[in-house]
Design brief:
By secondary structure, the protein is α+β, with helices and mostly antiparallel strands. It is built from 14 helices and 20 strands. The N terminus is likely disordered.
């Protein structure tokens, strides 16, 4: 559990290093029954309860001064059902292990985010997503859930069983209970061809609808202080497999994207005036490349440079306008932004608090190198996102509260009513949930 580095004296820290907590006690249950007992005992002791994954959220969604439940013993595949094409996994299973295990069985998820360090329950509960014309979030691929609720009982839900809980709990923010198992839809493993190439921002924005429509998975990175982007299109392929060569892969993914990028971030932090020049060089450093591999090797890449991130979902139709505003804001502001802005999409879904709930969405993510002051940049970006009724990622930095969410989520009250029913005593409450859901 390297990414949930526990500091001295039982302090818990997240991956981004911007959130820490000192729980009264930490528990690592080895079974669902043990977890349920830990929940009941916490209630008896008058302590709040939070399950934590690998700490990849930049918000304090997992922080607690009560009982912190660590899931590292609740991992592995429970069941593969080839008839219904589903796999059921323990909630603490890292996506990395799930992907590798599925590949060995000749299976794959349909879509994925761009890293796979997170646990399956942490990733789905916060609405983690990739990019896609037909498929976006990991939670949208969930077919069933097992949940330990506030009274210590174990509840299962799916489209047929407890459907109103299923609609909400797929992205439950940890507010409805602790997710102990997830059933995912899977398909026979397939090949994706990735085509990465630089493209001017103006062209990407002018042709965005077409690029989105012509590719199963389209995304791009825009380098602030430049008019340059790096685009990536992933489409299914008949093969043959042509993975990135080991040397080229090391050079592009480790040396350029992690090693040199890390050094560039250090230089930029020490001497902000150099950032625009570095951005121009970085945006031209990555040349076009094409490769074909199994999905998780194409969707995900290592991220060793630590950062802090804010990401908002805006209506897909508002994307070009949002980015143009972001670009002119950076140019006017005197800010020095050394990290690219990442843009992805997802189709509308039917999950109560999904960032794509009921509307086709585009995601705009702004990042800052860990340790660099990010407030001014994020505040100015957030002003633009919220003007477009943006919905922030539940696991990334934002300043929104329940009053705002009630406005931008048509089914917000449905979620809070369900929470009243499942956790009337607010056993799973923390400061973050109090802010985003109301008390």
């Amino acid at each position: 559990m390297s990414s949930t580095a526990s500091g001295k004296n039982g302090t818990w820290r997240n991956w981004g290093g911007n959130v820490s907590a000192r729980p009264a006690r930490q528990v690592a249950p080895a079974s669902v029954a043990e977890l349920a007992a830990a929940v009941r005992r916490a209630a008896e002791d008058g302590l709040k309860v939070k399950a934590v994954g690998t700490g990849h959220s930049f918000t304090s969604i997992a922080a607690t001064d009560g009982v912190l439940i660590r899931p590292q013993l609740l991992t592995g595949i429970r069941k593969i059902d080839r008839e219904s094409m589903t796999v059921t996994v323990e909630g603490g299973t890292p996506l990395k292990r799930l992907n590798a295990a599925l590949a060995r069985e000749g299976l794959s998820l349909t879509n994925m985010g761009d890293i796979m360090e997170q646990t399956v329950s942490g990733a789905t509960s916060t609405g983690t997503h990739g990019t896609g014309r037909e498929s976006g979030s990991i939670a949208a691929q969930v077919k069933g859930l097992e949940l330990v609720t506030a009274d210590g009982s174990v509840l299962t839900c799916s489209e047929k069983e407890n459907p109103e809980i299923f609609a909400a709990a797929r992205i439950g923010l940890g507010a409805l209970g602790i997710v102990t198992a997830i059933t995912f839809a899977v398909e026979p493993v397939f090949l994706l061809t990735a085509r990465e190439e630089p493209m001017p921002l103006d062209r990407v924005l002018a042709e965005f609808d077409q690029l989105w429509a012509e590719n199963e998975h389209f995304e791009f990175y825009w380098f602030p202080h430049t008019g340059n982007t790096n685009t990536k299109r992933n489409n299914r392929s008949a093969g043959p497999e042509q993975p990135v060569g080991r040397l080229a892969g090391w050079f592009e993914d480790e040396f350029l994207s992690n090693g040199v990028f890390q050094v560039a971030q250090w230089v930029g932090r020490a001497a902000p005036a150099t950032v625009p020049a570095i951005a121009r060089i970085s945006s031209k450093a990555l040349s076009a490349r094409t490769y074909t591999d199994i999905p998780y090797k194409v969707f995900t890449s290592p991220r060793r440079v630590r950062f802090v991130e804010m990401e908002y979902a805006v209506p897909r139709a508002a994307l070009a306008e949002t980015l143009r505003e972001l670009k002119s804001m950076v140019e006017r502001s005197g800010l020095r932004v050394s990290f690219p802005v990442e843009v992805r999409t997802a189709p509308a879904d039917d999950i109560t608090l999904s960032t794509a709930s009921g509307r086709d969405s585009a995601y705009v993510a702004v990042h800052m190198f860990r340790g660099t002051p990010y407030q001014a940049y994020f505040t100015a970006a957030e002003r633009i996102f919220t003007a477009h009724e943006g919905r922030p990622h539940w696991g990334k930095v934002h300043t929104r509260d329940a009053e705002y969410f009630a406005r931008v989520y048509p089914r917000f009250d449905e979620f809070t009513a369900l929470r009243d029913r499942l956790d009337p005593e607010r056993l799973f409450q923390n400061d973050y949930l109090r802010r985003v859901l109301g008390s």
